[in-house]
Recover the amino acids of this structure.
């Protein structure tokens, strides 16, 4: 689903910004209680990355604990990503964890255990216990199959009873 890719892509972008701000001299250091807001060109809050700790490890890897990322639309939270722990590799644009992940969007909640994100090919994978819960108020038209290119979707005609 596109919202999953967008949410994780934004999360990784925020983490990449954090990693870029750190230099090799921070290796082994930890930042506690961090908050990283991101604003658009008009000064509106777009996303905010928060966490308990960010520990800078060798080879550009950052270990994030108590991770929470909020995405904003028109001043309101539109999606939230939470995980107890995540390793982020800025050079390879990858993130992974064996921990639980929870992604809450406007009309869906995605949870699971263990995950990996690959920024190069924009793939997100949950390893175990993946569960998608969708809001029952979603319009049924959004779930209808799309017609094939060049063909019009026609409703089946009712059969006549004998």
């Amino acid at each position: 689903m596109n919202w999953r890719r967008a949410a994780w892509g934004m999360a990784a972008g925020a983490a990449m910004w954090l990693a870029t701000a750190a230099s090799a001299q921070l290796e082994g250091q930890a930042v506690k209680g961090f908050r990283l807001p991101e604003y658009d060109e008009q000064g509106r809050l777009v996303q905010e990355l928060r966490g308990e700790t960010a520990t800078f490890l060798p080879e550009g890897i950052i270990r994030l604990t108590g991770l929470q990322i909020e995405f904003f639309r028109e001043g309101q939270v539109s999606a939230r990503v939470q995980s107890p722990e995540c390793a982020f590799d800025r050079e390879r644009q990858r993130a992974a964890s064996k921990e639980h992940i929870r992604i809450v969007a406007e009309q869906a909640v995605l949870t699971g255990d263990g995950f990996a994100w690959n920024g190069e090919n924009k793939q997100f994978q949950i390893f175990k216990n993946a569960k998608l819960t969708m809001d029952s108020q979603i319009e049924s038209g959004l779930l209808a199959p799309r017609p094939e290119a060049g063909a019009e979707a026609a409703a089946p005609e009712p059969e006549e009873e004998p």
Observations:
- The beta strands are 30-39, 45-56, 61-73, 76-89, 94-105, 108-118, 123-134.
- Helices lie at 2-21.
- The chain has one helix and seven strands.
- Confidence is low (pLDDT under 50) at residues 151-158.
